[in-house]
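(Deposited chain)
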Amino acid sequence: MLLSTAYFPPVAWFALAARDMTLSPERVVPSHILLEACENYQKQSYRNRCYILAGDGPQMLQVPVVHRADMAIRSVLVDYSTPWVVRTQRALDAAYQTSAWYDCYRDELAALLQAKPETLWELNLSTLRWCLRHLGIVCELSPTSEFSLPDTGADDYREVIHPKRADTVLESLGLEKPYYQVFRDRMGGFTPGMSCLDLLFNEGPDSILWLKKV
């Protein structure tokens, strides 16, 4: 399966990561994802942004990057000249401090961001692995060695999950269903398309049961 790197991407990204994982009392067989490592950085994508559910609706959290001539995805530098890490932590506190599992993950997540990796690739790789581990998904991540042109292959999801486009990933996997959200009553019901953090903070270790329809 081929996916683009992403910063705390939506639940659909991890539903795909969990799709091919075998989960049974006898054994666990990991899934395998190829992360596109040979593309150029794309603006306004999940590569450097995610959406959480705040009290007044979806809120975008963005990682600022340094724009320069070389924007190969593995060379993009994170811009730490503004206190975006602190702002991210405050936004997460405000949105999820009353959720069932936020306190269990808060300090570890804060330390992950405060490590300040130099590149967006390194930041995303560390956060993806952190999310996979806590969501209960056993998955091997491998970078691509060359860029392949888009085709009609069912396993190429590089441009399917995008904030500017509607996707049917969860519907195709039979996962188009609500989970508990703190502000569901205020929002008038379930809000889809949120970061995987929304699922994790609300469902905790049971997230894998939602992702695997157990």
About this structure: The chain is about 35% helix and 15% strand. Residues 2-211 form one domain. Strands lie at 2-4, 22-23, 28-29, 31-36, 49-54, 57-62, 139-143. The helical segments are 11-19, 84-96, 102-114, 120-135, 169-172, 184-187, 196-203, 207-211.
